[in-house]
UniProtKB/TrEMBL annotation:
Entry protein name: NAD(P)H-binding protein
Domain of life from the UniProt record: Bacteria
Pfam families for the chain: NAD_binding_10 (PF13460)
Stored PANTHER family: NMRA-LIKE DOMAIN-CONTAINING PROTEIN, QUINONE OXIDOREDUCTASE 2
Entry-linked InterPro entries: NAD(P)-bd_dom (IPR016040), NAD(P)-bd_dom_sf (IPR036291), NmrA-type_oxidoreductase (IPR052718)
Sequence ranges assigned to domain NAD(P)-binding in this UniProt record: 7-185
Amino acid sequence: MKYTITGATGHLGRKVVKELSKLTDSKNIRLAVRNPQKAEDFAKAGYEVMHSDYYDVPSMVEAFTGTDVVIYIPSITYNVSKRIEEFENSLEAMKEAGVKHLVDVSFMADQANNPFQLAGYYAYLPARLASSKLSYAVVKNSLYADPLVPYLPELIARGNVIYPVDDQAMSFISRADSAEAIANVAVRPYLRDKGADLPFDPGKEL
């Protein structure tokens, strides 16, 4: 199986590469990145690195060709229309490249009345995938715990968090735990190919 990871040089992407490398040989892993210079350490370690830009479909087609499973880590833009454009471009490239399987990294913010800025994108995603003819899994993260500690002084000064949670409880996950789950979903067909949303519980064994 050939696995291609988008956004592989980001905070989460690097951890997904690390975790996936525990489950399959590095020769089976391709890194699709916008700036290959940021992936020089991976290239030196023997990983296949290819240029891929969410706004350049031909570059994605080239990066995805020969791929069995795409692990799609979206960009960090908070513009919903841009997120959708990036994903539509990616779907077009996957179709043209003949990709059959997708693991999409998402977030638990797809409720119909959720006022979070990106909730529209997360609500669009599963419905769009249902019509894509891909076999897929959507891995829904909660908030990342990693940046929370250095962020605490600002949160204390604000007297609130920036997310619209009102007085409700919040759950967090580390990027390392998320990456481990994503990698395991990617290599396990019974998790990967059901066309389903997979909220990740770090206390539950995969």
